[in-house]
Amino acid sequence: MTPVADPTLEFELELFDSGHRYVIGCDEVGRGAIAGPVAVGMAVLERTHILVPEGLRDSKLLSEKRREVLAPVATAWVLHSAVGLASAEEVDAIGIIPALGLAGKRALGLLHASGAAILESAILLDGSHDWLSPALSTPLPVVTRVKADRDCGSVAAASVIAKVHRDRLMIEAHETSPAYGWVGNKGYGSAGHYAAIDEHGPSALHRLSWLKSTAVPA
């Protein structure tokens, strides 16, 4: 198997060279889960950022233990970071794509509150689809890039920060609703998770429109 290359800042440097003072790496977590919020992480870099911290990669390429180690490293490395959330209820009400946009808008609001210069930034969004711009009241430059979470340091940082933040929320929820096994599945649809829904019914954290089970909410 060919090893995956570590992320670099090559694409971020192109954005700096095109006139942007800051680059905001952006990635989503929890899009495919059947329970819990969808989370959008954002991480702000400036040109003085030269080296990506050792070991930092797309969260999907890291073990849970490594993510826990690297999340504070990534947070300390970037100028600002934030995680915006949209709840399971909001996903049911408006759909997953608008919910992603809502979570992203909330993350930008948190960045602004922390002092980030949003209007001087380009947003580097993982993937090929710009789901963020339609949610914004103020137009911002959004650049999409396939595999940006793998290849771009700013997006890898956002990915790890968002993943650890959301995982911790699901672990906390497990303490009050242990039957669903959220400490292990983090809200994703495993066989055991679906069996628990069939036995206990869905909880307030479940995305009812996504469930294969016909159980009625308690």
Automatic annotation (TrEMBL):
Its EC number is 3.1.26.4. A divalent metal cation binds at residues 27-28, 126. It catalyses: Endonucleolytic cleavage to 5'-phosphomonoester. The keyword Cytoplasm applies. The keyword Metal-binding applies. Belongs to the RNase HII family. PANTHER family: RIBONUCLEASE H2 SUBUNIT A, RIBONUCLEASE HII. NCBIfam families: PRK00015.1-3 (NF000595). This is Ribonuclease. It comes from Orlajensenia leifsoniae.
